[in-house]
Specification:
By secondary structure, the chain is α/β, with parallel strands linked by helices. It contains eleven helices and twelve strands.
Amino acid sequence: MTVQFGVFVPQFRMGVSDVRARAVAAEKAGFESFWLMDHLYAPGGKPADTLESWTLLTALAGATSNIRLGHLVGCNPLRHPALLAKMAATVDRISGGRLDLGLGWGSVEAEFEMFGIRVGSRRERAEALGETLDIFRKMCIGAPFDHDGRHFQLRGAYGLPVPVQDRIPVHIGGGGKQLTMPLVAAHADWWNCVGSARHRIDELAPLRGGARISAQYAVGFARSADEVAEVAAATVRRMPHQAWGAPLVGTADMLLDQIQTERARGVELFVLRFHDFADPATLARFGHEVIAPLRTSGDREDTSTVEPVL
């Protein structure tokens, strides 16, 4: 099981050039993926510039060459599934086949109320997400189809052009047994375990079906042992445990040990939100001191001895 790394950069209080610089730095550092948030504002924060995510992805696609791009996770109620599929196919074309589609059923109630977006109950939103994913896969084929669902009805719909990829990977984020995990088992290529649910990963993982496991982590990357306490405090202050779970904090050697522990729980993709807002210099240092040693040492151990959670 080869470990992968992604960078999560929620694009509020940042300009386009700031986010672009981080995506370019992440690609150079050896990260496999780069992720944005998908909200119309910064939930829980003060009013601030918040760039629209899909439009921003097109800029990142033009500025990078190899790194995969996506959302953790897209807010499904914001877009009709046919429009979402058209947008996804277009970004996949622009990026040369580098889109990963992250989706969730939409859990920030305040956002819908603030912007007057009519949504149903949590269960109805989860049902709508299931229909969205059915429609998305059919749109990606390009042939006309009908869809008769509770939430959406399409007649003779088709999606052209089709994406570059034969199958755009779908990531479904969350940790709810009743609403989210059944969708993961039915539709997802990846289950993205949010930080607040990571302490239950062993309990939830058997419900994921065939989906691979990714997880979100707050990360405090210290240059030396003397900095660990200060970095740990900044990490928890900016990304509280209740939202992000226990962070990964320490020097490169300390982080390598913590990553190995998480790998043993079945995590294949580590999506990291850094304590210093993913400063490009930090991403470069992480690539040199953490990613490169893992790659050159065969992920630091015989990977056949690491059993994923089933």
